[in-house]
Amino acid sequence: MPRLLAPSTSVALVLLASVPACHRASAGAPAATPAEVGTTQILVAPEPVRHAPTVIATGTLKPRWQAQLAFPVAGTLDRIAVKRGQAVAEGAPLLALDAATARALLAQAESGVAAAKAQRVLAEDGLARLEAIRKEQGGVTDAQLVQVRGQRDLAQAQVLASEAQREQARVNLDHHTLRAPFAGVVTRIPDGRGVAVGAGAPLVALESVRQLVLETSLTQAEATELGAGAKVEVSVAATGARTSDATVTVVVPSVDAGTSRVPVEIEVPNGDGRFLPNAFARARLPSGATRDALRVPAAAVIQKDGAYAIWIAGQDGRARTLPVRVLSQEADLAVVDAGSSGFPAGTRVVALPPVGIAEGQLLAQVSAR
Fold first, then answer.
1. Mean pLDDT over all residues of the chain?
2. Is the per-residue pLDDT at 23 higher than 50?
């Protein structure tokens, strides 16, 4: 919030008090009216502003995607292709198992496909010859023709089966290389090569850092003013990182039974890496429509009868309290709303109310400042 400059319209004030007359009354004359003196205070004009209500929430910046990666097959770790802390692209190889056996199985499957295709060619040729003989010379029974066609169909099925076995062998070979399922940063790798690895044993940890999620929560009243798509300001005090491009993606339409608060997710873009995953962050979220308000010195706001108020001097020059609602406060300034009563025309605010100021006490304007 910008700081309020000393208003050029600020004026000094005096709290008036009655003291005895300082001049001698003439003999036989009535006593003189007491003179009024007092101590100087400061009056300021409240500054009209447009206030966008906000609510503060805190939480942890978590990676949008994070995974503990493992091989789907067992084997011996043969190669570590990345270092801890290294950024990798989607599909980049991370680890590899010894794949000599897997490559041999793939070669065997390739040979099986070739043999099956050769058998299919022979079966198709035999069927073609038999059909030609039956057409030109006759003497070929239906049973013979059915048998040869069956052999042709069996050869075709064997081709399909061998191709499926080849695909299975290829997939098995691919499973000997562990690849990044998404772009991110490697946060954990194995200690060394040559160790036996079991299927499903986590070996590599990967986190996305370009898109983070701030998980936080709001009260039920605060959540009613918020919807998905709202822009949010997110900051991390430890590093000074800040962005105004964060977006509310989820406002869970349910109250957490443990906290009685509504879970909220905020997507935080991090293309330049200014934020670190798992850092503690603070979010300033919109809370309602922009409204008219007044900015006053924070020291002018007092507590009275369990609520907030300020001392003002009206056009009649007398002090009175005005109940207000504090909308926000930063440094030595506060933004307040006087509600339906509003601020009377010509109102000046007592910047630093003195001890002993009373309702209806006369205030006198004595000089500009």
1. 85
2. no
User: Over the range 45-75, which residues count as b (16 or more CB within 10 Å of their CB) and which as e?
Assistant: bbeebebebbbebebebbbbbbbebbbebeb
Task: Determine what percent of the chain is predicted with pLDDT higher than 90.
Answer: 59
Which of 145, 175, 205 is a domain's end point? 175
| Number of domains making up the chain | 2
Cβ neighbours of residue 323 under 8 Å, at least 6 residues apart? Answer: 304, 307, 308, 309, 338, 339, 341
For residue 110, what is the domain's CATH number? 1.10.287
Q: How far apart are CA 47 and CA 319, in angstroms?
A: 19
Residue 281 counted as domain residue: no
DSSP category for residue 115: H
Q: 189-209: per-residue pLDDT in tens?
A: 999 899 999 999 999 999 999
Residue 125 falls within a domain, yes or no?
Answer: yes
CATH number at residue 21: 2.40.420.20
Judge residue 324's burial from the number of C-beta atoms within 10 Å of its C-beta, 0-12 exposed, 13-18 middle, 19 or more buried. buried
Question: What are the tokens at 118?
Answer: 């050769």
C-alpha 220/C-alpha 269 separation (Å) is 27
What span, in angstroms and rounded, lies between the C-alpha atoms of 270 and 243? 9
- The verdict on residue 44 lying in a domain is yes
